[in-house]
Design goal:
The chain is an alpha/beta fold. The chain is 28% helix and 26% strand. A seven-stranded parallel beta sheet has the order 7-11-6-1-4-5-12, sandwiched between helices. It has a five-stranded parallel beta sheet with strand order 14-13-15-16-17. Strands 8-9-10 form a three-stranded antiparallel beta sheet, with no helix packed on it. Helix 5 packs parallel to helix 8.
Amino acid sequence: MKNVLILIEHRNDRVIRVCRQILSFFSLASSHTDVFTINAFIYGEKINQNVYDELSKLGVHQVFSAMDDTLNHYNPEILSPFFSDVIQTLDQQYILFSNTAIGKDLAPRLAHQFSSEMVSDIIDISIKDGLLRFTRPIYGGKIFEYIQPEERVFVTIRANSFEETNLIRKMNTQINFVHSKKIEKLMYILKAATQKKESAQVLTEAEVIVCGGGGMKSKKNFEILYELADLLGASVGASRAAVDGGYISRSALIGQTGKRVKPKLYLAFGVSGSMQHAAGMSTAGYVVAVNQDPEALIFNFADFGIVGDLFQVLPLLIKELKKYKENNDRCINPSSDGF
């Protein structure tokens, strides 16, 4: 039986979406093959019982929990000793991380420490002869690489690459508390972190996304999208054309070489809808597209489409949403009865 160890990130007393997706995949695989033992490592100053309950429902056999006042904010120098102790104790073959800022920072550090292979940005996993085979895009998404390590490997997995199942496979999860030596000398100590506004939440977690493409024409015009996003409690994303045009940072890129998103509502303004972009948003719930070109590929994915000038449509949409909000004293959101 193979051991799988997953770094769990949590926010607001809940496991983040990408970690739930990873656990769903292995819980389902384990229920069919009984090949894997699913272990989880979690850390924080305090960890709510709801998080442990959620991990139990997602099929985790053992949770290794590091709780310490130094773990209030992420610092790899502080966290690495806690996590490396668990890896050594269990002798894991697969150590998995979400492809978040934390995962992308911590995974290569630990891979180097253990002189192990590092595989990043995985979008698919298959199981053959009890071993995992990983798939990742390379050369700008033009080619897919298949990797089947036989030794210990550290892996980061892209968000929304797997379905989050409703399968409840509640385990009698064992919780082990992890302790590590204090580090006296640190390069830095993080005292506080500025919280993003609700409307600027992580794209991969967002329920509503407002996306701008090359049709936005300038960085200044993107301010209109931020105004709309504030009204909707949404996050702002972008297509490759908008990022390459310098209208917005690459962290907002949605597509094969950017982020995969799965919102309930996706609004696309001036987005052509190339296959590269579609790879990142095709699993959205409802898609609304505005584009002047009636032949734009984005309309192939849209549930609702408007062929017209987005600079005429956007002000009208914002005006109506403000009016609605004033009358109802609440923002629109995809889970409300009025949506």
